[in-house]
Protein 1
Amino acid sequence: MKTATDIDILVSEVGPRDGLQSVKASMPTELKLQWVSALAGAGLREIEVGSFVSPKLLPQMADAAEVVAHALSLPGLYVTALVPNLKGAQAAFDAGVHKITLPISVSEPHSISNIRKTHAQVFEEVQAVVALRNERFPDVQIEAGLSTAFGCTLQGVVSDDETLAIAVRMAELGVDEVGLSDTVGYANPNQVRRLFTRLRSAVGELAGSAHFHNTRGQGLANVVAALEAGVTTFDGSLGGLGGCPYAPGASGNIVTEDLVWLLESMGLRTGVDLDRLAAAREWLHKGLPGEPLYGFIPDAGVGKHFTYAKEAV
Amino acid sequence: MKTATDIDILVSEVGPRDGLQSVKASMPTELKLQWVSALAGAGLREIEVGSFVSPKLLPQMADAAEVVAHALSLPGLYVTALVPNLKGAQAAFDAGVHKITLPISVSEPHSISNIRKTHAQVFEEVQAVVALRNERFPDVQIEAGLSTAFGCTLQGVVSDDETLAIAVRMAELGVDEVGLSDTVGYANPNQVRRLFTRLRSAVGELAGSAHFHNTRGQGLANVVAALEAGVTTFDGSLGGLGGCPYAPGASGNIVTEDLVWLLESMGLRTGVDLDRLAAAREWLHKGLPGEPLYGFIPDAGVGKHFTYAKEAV
């Protein structure tokens, strides 16, 4: 989704996908639907509501089509889903999503470990997905989410050039957007600023979102650097729920609550209401009792004289 | 202390002062000395080892002179202390510190609540301290640490102009350095970048350190912004111990371990060894059993392919 004119930054909530898939328990579908409604009600414009993947691999995502159907009923919500392959893409298209995200590991060892595909196999799959979209679902957007773009626990160092080569290949294959993910929490602000700047040089307007994890407490520091490089879409997960089950040592996404506070404090409009966002945690407490949540704003509050960006102008 | 040539950024450890003064229990002196030794042994070049304040107000700091004496015995360590007034300055000078930090609240209500002085009274005190230094302790540096520079729970919004006016006044009164403190965790990266840039315009080479709290998880994000504004000295507290007992809602300083990791990851040399820094927590566990410590790096580790900045070149 291109950023609307009444917001400056699009906060894309990935908790229902990245969060829930990292938790062993499955959240009951009815509570997921309530949660997604609460997230949308808090002002989030884009939600990645699930993953179209084999329920044998991720039983937590077995109800993805049902969650998509519900999300599509919420006015103004841009509904996205993760899909690892053509089969998942077909299912997501059939379910009616507005956008799919294809995770592409820049690190080939990570790709093989994560989705059991070499780069060559991944490229073929992307080509098939784009062809299917072009032929039968022309309105659906396709984002390539480049995971391990900043380093990988398996491969080790991932060079800028490797990441950019995959980004360019994705553009050639016809995706609409290329985002960068710090899957295992290795990114530092200088690297983030440099790589997103180079990404924009390489693929222009296709340069997409930033997906950061907060493994080493550096998530919001990387947001500052990405903002400087012109990034306007950031993934976050309510309560920091989430992580990558295939990447040892990975921990949760940046916390949506803290991200929204940071952006609004900086004078950047997100359209999100922090009180309603905090209230949306209720459904996580109900659906995943005892699951730890993270974040500073829910505990510390916004501070006495906080104003939303729109009011601060 | 001016940054030495073999490091890019000076990490100034304030745990033995800001950390310990916020904890109700008093750490036994012998363990404090071991802790300070361990911190210096980890490569920290500057440590604020205590506060010369009435032991009735802060019994945790009653042994400040003894800690200073020990710290002075550690080779190459720059020894600093906080002093709220002339009496404290005299004691700190007598103890032999290399530098004193005078906390100056930009917010007058905070000043009155914190040290029971109006701005006019604070300025008189600074003048007296500078006069004493000039006359009898010419080698000791004086830093004005401008607290509530980014906002105050009592006054509310603190404008850039208010902060800069105090900074300029401090320069006129003869201090050697003016630092800015986000006492209650209100600062955002745009404000930090702007205010440190303006500080440098206003007082030139006297522009000093950044002292951030991590109340809303934004501490390291603010470090990124301050780096861009040319700041080369950052305060941190081992394990995030610390806070301001007079500012409701304030929580700990940024975590030294996470700060050092961030800087080194960005290619900025700190001279600090992360393993030895983590080991220094031992003395906090012994001296303040059960006291919660914070930080990501001690749990997550540095990541498989981390290299210190000096090695990365």
Protein 2
Amino acid sequence: MSSFSWPIRIYYESTDAGGVVYHAEYLKFFERGRSEWLRHLGFEHTQLKAEFGIIFVVRDLHIKYLQPARFDELLHVVTSLLEVGRSRLVFEQKLQRGDEVLTAAEVEVVSVDCETFKPTTISPTMKQHFLEIK
Amino acid sequence: MSSFSWPIRIYYESTDAGGVVYHAEYLKFFERGRSEWLRHLGFEHTQLKAEFGIIFVVRDLHIKYLQPARFDELLHVVTSLLEVGRSRLVFEQKLQRGDEVLTAAEVEVVSVDCETFKPTTISPTMKQHFLEIK
Amino acid sequence: MSSFSWPIRIYYESTDAGGVVYHAEYLKFFERGRSEWLRHLGFEHTQLKAEFGIIFVVRDLHIKYLQPARFDELLHVVTSLLEVGRSRLVFEQKLQRGDEVLTAAEVEVVSVDCETFKPTTISPTMKQHFLEIK
Amino acid sequence: MSSFSWPIRIYYESTDAGGVVYHAEYLKFFERGRSEWLRHLGFEHTQLKAEFGIIFVVRDLHIKYLQPARFDELLHVVTSLLEVGRSRLVFEQKLQRGDEVLTAAEVEVVSVDCETFKPTTISPTMKQHFLEIK
């Protein structure tokens, strides 16, 4: 399984009074990772919405917090595609300091109609792209 | 000039590694204050958008940080309308710990078309409501 | 099992360009729910940190997104304690529109030393309070 | 006056239900710009705190919203130092789409003791660095 890495710098905006990254902020890092993974494959969210009227939404997310990430650190988020379904994708994502895993998540996203939020089928072309790099 | 007060509790989500509220978070508190002021006058953002296709957007904001707000505190935001123009409103807003002012802002919002983002005229009915309590 | 309910109003700050609440924001609502549950039991985060040097951090979180929450809605978060361990608490939390569940989560938090982030034992007094209302 | 440019990609996390970037998020982009400007000069926030016990906090911020920034865009924040005082720095910062200015701000930050939040004098060495590139 191939994976895609994207750098994440920790700014004040992501920390809390505990002195480390606020637990909800990791979800933003993972979403940046998925967006850049998609862009890397040649797709843009805005183009998918404009051309096909679809957006990807998160349906299920399970995250484990192993070690705190700290202010000013340069980390990276590693994104791997685990499954491709009719309308859903399942990712494994990790925020890492070098090889050390700080948080690990399994994230299920679904392709939905941007108006009705009903699931839509992922096009064969897009699916093909996803499967080639899986 | 009458003013409208709304309680704000400080949760972890609003703090940063400096141990106090992150500077951008105060803008959220002020927006909650303006939204509740509007609701108090009988208007809802969603109704304004659905019926008239307008939304209010911030055009200019000047904020002074006087004292830090801290985790777990119960504060209140005080909102006063300073000016009502053809399409714009100017507010004075303060985040207070009792009578002590922690941050003070002057905020200009503009009524715009929700599609084009072009300024629209505030309706006479709405203006009347605003002026009565100014 | 008793549960604790706390109101959540959806402001612009929590929404995204999809027109609904951004998926990471629900974690903030759940944290507000846990903080208010703790306060309801007579404990304050700041007091626990000052007196005992402990803070609660999230170690594991599993969230299911069932229905989108929308701008301007008044919802409530329902918090129930599932388990009390030596240093950990497990909660079931739901964001609801009336009786309809929009998102549901199971959240494990751990009592840790605020300097070392190492797990600490939850005091018998506190545990007693938690168990009584479980 | 020299200026420092830093790229900003707009993700879902920064947008709101109006379909554009939420007004408080621009403050985060500006802070990223100032942090990277500081790093570019050879200083790190964490080092300043550990060695000298100082942090920079925002004391005054005036922002003008000229054009909305949109989801998925690649923009850049341009940071210029306007003034260096005994304990304060004044910056002009702009978020730009190419040469087009979307938001413009004047931001005053103050060097404070990280415990007392009282203003501290900026060291001659640091001041020298700041002045050379002003």
